[in-house]
Amino acid sequence: MIDFHLDVRSGVSPYQQLVQQVQRALRLGLLSVGDQLPTVKEVVAKLAINPNTVLKAYRELEHLGLVTPRPGLGTFVTHSLADDSLAAHEPLRRELLGWLDKAQRAGLDADSIEALFLTTFRKATEVTP
Amino acid sequence: MIWLTWRQFRGQAVVALVALGALAIFLVILGLQLRNVYDANVGCAGCSVESGAQLLKDKYFSVLLLTGFLIILIPAVIGAFWGAPLVARELEAGTHRLVWNQSITRTRWLAVKLSFVTLAALAFTGALSLLFTWAASPYDRALNDRFDPLFFPTRNLAPLGYAVFAVVAGITIGLLTKRTVIAMAVTLAAFTAMQILMPTVIRPHLQGPITENVQFTAVAAHGIWTNPAGQVSVEGYDVPGAWMLTNEAKLVDSTGAQPSKAVTEVCFTGDFAKDKACLEALNLHSVLTYQPADRYWTFQWLEFGIYLLLALLLAGYAFWRIPRGLS
Amino acid sequence: MKPVLRTQGLSKSYGSRPALIDVTLTVPAGRVVGLVGPNGAGKSTLLNLAAGMIAPTAGTIEVLGSRPAADAAQLARIGFVAQDTPVYAGLTVGDHLRMGRRLNPRWDDALAEGRVAQVGLDPAQKAGRLSGGQRAQLALTIAAAKRPELLIFDEPVASLDPLARRAFLQSLMEFVAELEVGVILSSHLLSDLERVCDHMIVLTGSRVQLTGDVEDLLATHYRLVAARGGLDALPPGVEVIHAEHTDRQSTLLVHDTVGAVPGLAADTEHLNLEDMILAYLTRAALGAVGARAPQTLEAQR
Per its UniProt entry, which superkingdom is the organism in (chain B) (predicted)? Predict the structure, then answer.
């Protein structure tokens, strides 16, 4: 079972953080099909967050087709992200390295690169709230 | 709610029971002693009732007076230590905000607390009053003094009225002051004020007193004295068992005026018997006002009723106030 | 479902001093409501009105559709824990549970006993000797075991250390998950509440500054950064909460009720909850200074 954590100051809404943590665990193979997610009460008791936040995150994961709630039993993983995405990691990383190299050659220092990346990243991810 | 009231009250109840036990032992011993002395000096065959009564008075007046004070003091103490903190301590500690948010209305909360402690006060004071009335009854029978303001409030029903009043006044004052110590002080002050007002201002007028003209006779007068203006007062004009409202029986003539010095001066020679005869010849009388002995129980009930009514008014105010929020 | 709290023109004065002025708001059911504002803003007054501890000077208040503290049944529906979590110092933890059992018809004994055991309270311990955190847990247990439909807490964590604070909020959220109970809790610190609340009421100077579901609030508040003068004409429905200007640039915090903001400025981003509430508090503080405040802002240009 995975353990959630929360960074209130991160700027990412709490429910998204939970969704992302499940997705990351699925990608890294920490969670696989058939595994159970912690119950709402367990998450709430650990993180001291609103149960609605957890419910919303689980609904989102369900909507993404990653988990299925079984009434009376809990929420279970029905789809894994590990195989396909793990394979995609390496080429993507190489592309990113190439891009970084390009940015450095264009004269951007580390801070500028980070700022550019983050603003672009945020804008791109904000499209789907 | 009764459980909670009892749980909060039980410490005080234990103290009260210990005090009641000690007082009861004292009163029983006092009552038995009085009975022995009564039987030996008043109730015996061939005894002089008058001298026996005088002996009882000499021996027991002080102790009965002081015990009587204690009997009045007890409702005051109950009002200050049971009544005043009952609500005030909750308001002071903020615990009313806990208990008022259980599934019980404030009215019911107050009703249970008030009834519980009032009944406890009634039981406690009632037991003491009963014991004291029993203990003092030989004395009262011999001296017929129980209507006297010093003794009237200490026996029979009157202490019960004081107890109810003191508790309810304590509770209501506590509700208003919200401070335990202040509520205790104000309760004691209110109780004392009532104890002074009642016999001086209110009780004498509960029923129209009887006024009687008594002819001065040498036989009836126990003592006579005069002031520098020559006005004469006389001692010994008591109505048995009555509450005398006339402190000093002044001698007046047929017009109702006090005779002048010129008239009375001649009668004061220093020979008591001769002086009395001389005064008798002047055809003087005195005007006595009093509440007769047969009104004793009427006055006991009235005293009890007035205090009960005051308690009801105060309780009514508290019950009107409490659901309305306190600030 | 009926709203948990509905007020209309609600005002409360203590003598001539107003504590709450003309509060009109509706809090929908099923929320964890945060009531935020500086000390003395009127938070306690509002919560005490909701619990029926005090009566309003003007206006109306309805909690779960009824007048607060109207009768025993209404009292049973609300669990109110007053500021500083009062308990009977001379009574034990066990006595408090017994009191709860005797005074509440819907009392859940299993919940109460289990909770006390779980947080490690000794039933024989006198409540007066509990720590602040333990006292808060006891008060929470009594309020929750009553099985109310709404829990109201007045500054429950203000006097607690960070550990007890977290423990209290964890317990509270467990109850919310388990009992499906609505919650209103107040704090003068947003950080106490932002993890747990999905509805906010911001109160300053006896008036409501902002109220709404957190999600809606986050979705409708933006920070716009543009060249100086580029934002002078805003479309209707876009309200400026806070504005700062330098020689070159204007930064506006706006509330967009009509969806007109996206695309308005080159640099548009959503606000986080803290910045948003701070903007409202700043605006209220400036407003309180009086009519001179806008001129001061003007002079900074």
Answer: Bacteria
